[in-house]
């Protein structure tokens, strides 16, 4: 058990957490960042980021996150690469357990982000890592020369599809409705790529294969007919869920597990703040997360001033 | 006709334009200058992912990024914004421009002291943003000229790194929230300079000091300082939209969590809104939200599917 009581602990090391760390460090709060074993958040599995303002040539996701880590550390933020496993917000100082150690703090910023959603089929679970993946950037290379499928029709799905064209011979995008949800620019790009084909009104009924994925059984929502689509790999890109498992019972979560702020970045527990995708199911942009991280740090700073008044 | 007109060409304006153009919309940015309030800062160290960048340079980079996607720019000062039939009409320098939606991002500027030397030493010791510039005055002597909680916040922040913080007041007291005031004057390096009215700022390359009028004895003296933080609040020029969107008592545009103003189809982002923090990264974040909310509104107004949240998607999958 550590006796040191930090002024501020930040849980999460994506754009929200690291921007909060940067601002808090510059305000001499010496923040401790519980960065997680897979640090850097969702941008670590993103290739080219074209819409982070200030980078006209684009920037690689991991490169941007590395820059943010260095920037926060330069001003005195301490980052540990362990997962937060348990929190106690019932009294102060607040407790955050990570890597067999308990860390204490007068205030906490939750910036744990969101993780990929899965369809929830038993066959998907069984074949995960055996041809079924949620991260083309991580696993795309393994599907060189194969035909693959991408499930989903948003920006992320089409980005995965475009990335996969580097390796796969054919990429089939399976979209649930008759319209893609992705932005026009992504649609234009994806549809212009000769390797990408989009099938509309298709739902996945089963992932096929004994030890390794061989294909999918898909159903047409209009005709009700099912067919088999051969696929050497399948990427599920249907959305995200908030990483709030460890906060259950500690602060108020909404029906889907997101943390709803009471005012700006404040939560229902005084001294606990929230920023990024863990509270935002709608916009989910790196820069919106960063903006909220900044606000959370400023809110926490104000809280610490007043609290110690 | 444009899909969206953006009023203002600072960090918020260009970021909003970038997000809209990437969704294939026709976007016109109208700005009196490029850069806005960030131009007052020579070195921004707290924009995430960028080690150090000048305020103007940051706006230029985002402009470059936006123009790659086809955003157009018009230099001009917006005189008025009116709601027309099925569109908004923005007038600038006597000409009228139509759009289906508008994003207000014209920012605000800090209130000046309006004294000799101030203009000359802006960015060279005279600062209007402690959050931005406090680290530059580590172990230095600084003065805080300002009023109320914002000045107290500024001085508290400076108290962590500066050697000495002189808080000026025209009376013998400093008026702020009692808790803040108490916390402030408990700091060993914070000192109240009472009955002081700053008359002039002097220096060579950078600020060396200020001339003070003693409001009681009416005598003038010099006070050596390395930096002067001015905290008089911001001036917002909302004249052009005063008759169309709701403003708060500081004439800032009132927005909700989706950056919508009181008028459907008009959104706002950045320093002209009623959010209490003014930072480049917050402006950029708000602008991305405003742009996506605006896109969503336009799509729905045209009967198409807007951005759906993960929620609705989850529901659809389960159905």
Automatic annotation (TrEMBL), chain A:
It is an enzyme of class 1 (oxidoreductase). Binds 1 FAD per subunit. Residues 7-293 form the FAD/NAD(P)-binding domain. One of its GO terms (molecular function) is thioredoxin-disulfide reductase (NADPH) activity. Its EC number is 1.8.1.9. Pfam families: Pyr_redox_2. The keyword Lyase does not apply. It catalyses: [thioredoxin]-dithiol + NADP(+) = [thioredoxin]-disulfide + NADPH + H(+). Its cofactor is FAD. GO terms for cellular component: cytoplasm. The keyword Cell cycle does not apply. It comes from the Bacteria. PROSITE patterns: PYRIDINE_REDOX_2. Keywords: Disulfide bond, FAD, Flavoprotein, NADP, Oxidoreductase, Redox-active center. Homodimer. Belongs to the class-II pyridine nucleotide-disulfide oxidoreductase family. This is Thioredoxin reductase. It comes from Candidatus Doudnabacteria bacterium RIFCSPHIGHO2_12_FULL_48_16.
UniProtKB/TrEMBL annotation, chain B:
Pfam families: Pyr_redox_2 (PF07992). It comes from the Bacteria. Residues 3-286 form the FAD/NAD(P)-binding domain. The keyword Oxidoreductase applies. Keywords: Flavoprotein, Oxidoreductase. InterPro entries: FAD/NAD-bd_sf, FAD/NAD-binding_dom, Ferredoxin-NADP_redctase_2. This is FAD/NAD(P)-binding domain-containing protein.
